[in-house]
Amino acid sequence: MSLTEIQANVVKNLKIFRAEKEFVEVRILKTKNGVVSGYYNDFTRLANDIGAYIGTYDIYFTLNPLATVVQLEEQNTLNFNVKQTTKDSGIKKFSYLLIDLDPERKAGISSTDDEKKTAYVKAKKIFRFLKSKGWFDPIVCDSGNGYHLLYPIDLANEDTNRLLLKEFLQTLNSLFPASDGAKVDTTTYNASRIVKLYGTIACKGESSEERPHRISKVIHQPKVIQTIPIEKIKEITKLSEKGINDSHKSCDYRNTGNPTMRRIDVEDLIKRHNLGVYEKKAWEGNSTLYKFKYCPFNPEHDDWSFCIIQFPDGAIAVKCHHDSCSSNDWKALKKHLGIAFKNRGRSQIRPTSDQFNQLLDNLTVLGPHLQDSYVQIPLAVFIQISNQLIKNSLFN
Are 337 and 313 in contact (CB under 8 A)? Predict the structure, then answer.
């Protein structure tokens, strides 16, 4: 494809995401002139200005509409060695929910055809899954190395909505884990997110026959663009909560209402083991949810993906939304922190010295008739009695 054809496609694709005369920031990273950036509402001029960079550098644009006013002298021109680019506060609203499917591979290289196919298969699965939940069709794009599902939304640029999108992506990632070779990027929830400028060439690493540089493109655009209601997004996030709730059935500790059981004080546990910054809130009625900024299994998981839930009966469930932590449950956390709880569903009553002596007296009285009698006592008490009997040589 010629450069002129590529530039024509860039203009065509930008018009899908922006209204007439609406500004967009174009950004090119790691060039010999540092970060190159410009604010354009003349898309033909934008395509012409980036011509020298196409095929050499990855080129991006801001997905969501800008809120900042672009000064006249900054309009429709590229700037070099830029230090300040669009921040989250400079975005008007969330217009797209980006689901970025990328094959797992080493950083900084293009995907092979087989690797890219795994991203296609996962994109197809997620597309069908969301369709079954009543979602409208997205704009589907080929990023060059993977695939993007872009669902139109209309949400204010507020923290609550940002956190909702974050939770949605984490839920999707837990529902469709990376075990098949492709993963859901869980970091694309920020308002100022930049994505590949569709129509340009993806240029990660050296281009080779096995790992070629490819042209990004829009491969499906619905005839009618329909916005996904916020209720549909919330509906998906509840699926991860259901997964945690289901884990209640397999918790390895629960308070069954026996007054002799010791209910675990989660906040005391958090402080004693220095689990760091957390938020506490009511969850699913009478349960309590503790969400942590850092995962104790992997501090690189610093995106509030780790949580502890205590159910009304005292049972505890643990979950981190990252794939590498998928097997880490409450049992794993106890082992990781070196916690040993002796109460595990059975009453282990420690008798007082008077009670202990009375039991010994009773056993002595039973002496000749022991084979015809029994005493029902907790295992821990039996062990103590046995040790004491041996010590006193009562069986000699």
Answer: no
Residues whose CB is less than 8 angstroms from the CB of residue 29 and which lie 6 or more positions away in sequence, other chains included: 35, 57, 58, 60
Spatial strand order in the sheet of 93-103:
182-184, 93-103, 147-156, 139-142, 217-220
Residue type, position 96, single letter: Y
- pLDDT at 377 exceeding the cut of 60: no
Task: Please tell me the distance from the alpha carbon of residue 227 to that of residue 153, in angstroms, as a whole number.
Answer: 5
140 in Cβ contact with 220 (< 8 Å):
yes
Residue (of 209, 208, 203, 210) closest to 108 by Cα position: 203
Here the tokens at position 253 are 């500790």
How far is it, in rounded angstroms, from Cα 6 to Cα 23?
Answer: 21
Q: How many CA atoms lie within 13 A of 248 on its CB side?
A: 17
Which H or E run contains 365?
A: helix 353-366
Q: What is the pTM of this model?
A: 0.64
- Residue 349 in this model has a pLDDT that exceeds 90: no
Q: How far apart are CA 86 and CA 37, in angstroms?
A: 10
Q: Which residue has the higher pLDDT, 275 or 367?
A: 275
Average pLDDT, integer, range 259-266 = 70
Q: CA-to-CA distance for 64 and 96, rounded, in angstroms?
A: 7
Report whether 88 contacts 25 (CB < 8 A): no
Q: Given phi > 0 = left and psi -120 to 50 = alpha, else beta, which region is 183?
A: beta
Cα dihedral 320, 325, 326, 331 in deg (nearest 10)? -80
pLDDT in tens, 268-294: 999 999 999 998 888 767 889 898 989
Q: What is the pLDDT of residues 52-104, one digit of tens each?
A: 999 999 999 999 999 978 888 889 999 999 999 999 999 999 999 999 999 99
Q: What are the tokens at 45?
A: 């001029």
Residue with token string 């997964």? 243
The Cα 66–Cα 90 span in angstroms is 6
Task: Render the burial of 260-274: b for 16+ CB within 10 Å, e for the rest.
Answer: ebeebebeebbeeee
Of 380 and 108, the one with more pLDDT: 108
Tokens at 368, concatenated: 């000749």
- Give percent helix, percent strand, percent coil of the chain, each to the nearest 5: 35, 20, 40
Nearest Cα residue to 290 out of 299, 271, 298, 300 = 271
